[in-house]
Amino acid sequence: MTFEQLYIFVAVAEREHLTRAAEAIHLTPSAVSSAIRNLENFYGVELFHRVGRRIELTESGRVFLGEARATLARVRAAELALAEMGGLKRGEIHIQASQTIAGYWLPPLLMQFHYHHPHIDLHVETGNTRTVADAVLRGTANIGFVEGEIEDPALAREEIGEDALTIVVGAQHPWADGRTVTLDQLVHGTPWILREAGSGTRSEFENALMRDGADITRLSVTMILPSNDAVMSAVQAGLCATAVSRLAASALIDQGRLVPVAWSLPPRKFFMLRHKERHHGKAAATLAELCRATCAREKPGLPDPARS
After folding, report:
1. Residue 152 dihedral angles phi and psi, to the nearest 5°
2. Model pLDDT for residues 205-227, shown as the tens digit of each residue
3. pTM exceeding 0.70
4. Residue 217 φ then ψ, to 5°
5. At CA 157, angle to CA 153 and CA 162, rounded to 5?
6. Separation CA 120–CA 112 (nearest Å)
7. 18 CB contacts (<8 Å, ≥6 apart)?
8. From CA 87, how far away is CA 170, in angstroms rounded?
9. What percentage of the chain carries pLDDT values higher than 90?
10. Which of 124, 126, 250, 295 could form a disulfide with 160 if both were Cys (CB 3.0 to 4.6 A apart)?
11. How far apart are the first and last CA of the chain?
């Protein structure tokens, strides 16, 4: 068994599609198919079901996927340890972040990091709060950034920023005139378009309404969409409301395409996640320190690690 076979297997297993996996890892579909066949034939184990033109993991494949991910994570950790022994002249960081953070809060920090450490490769993927936490737990991400509440004994969680949720409607919605709305009107007076379950935006909004005494099961949810941009685009086009990050909505609010509703929601915190027992590498530790320093500057009462 080679590391390349493991790498190819994980790419195919995560996508359950040979061609998309081949494109992602820059190999031909025939090379990917051959590697999977050789692995199955050598060990006499079927890793995938071939169903028409689709493939699906078998039960053996699902078990092997966990082992393959763990092995590749250890290989990456060993490579980083060697690469970083001479300072931050080589290396990489695998980052996963929820959509609001990845789209609005994190990019300026990554550009600042890249300016000082141009030879460190930054790999960023987006997901919701749950999928980001899972990536850090599996070791496929060195650092995760989320805005939802995550409690896991294996994860170290640090506050590194905050944002405000705001309820917005399109310019044609009756609430766009600035009227004061009641809690009962929020629950019963308009249809809603929301993010998917598992997203930090959705969970924070529902928690805020429950703290105010609302029965969130009574919300009339017209549509569930998987991204901030999709939610905001749909709200602009109809007579629904949504709760979204103020960071994400600010440009559309300034343009008058979305209108904030006169209802205050509490701020929500951004958290950095790291695995308590995994080796993070010097590059990831340096990025973490930059995040802490930024948080300290934004909250004047906290010490700035960059100046200590």
Report:
1. -145, 125
2. 998 999 999 888 889 999 999 88
3. no
4. -70, -15
5. 145
6. 12
7. 12, 29, 32, 33, 36, 55
8. 51
9. 51
10. 295
11. 48
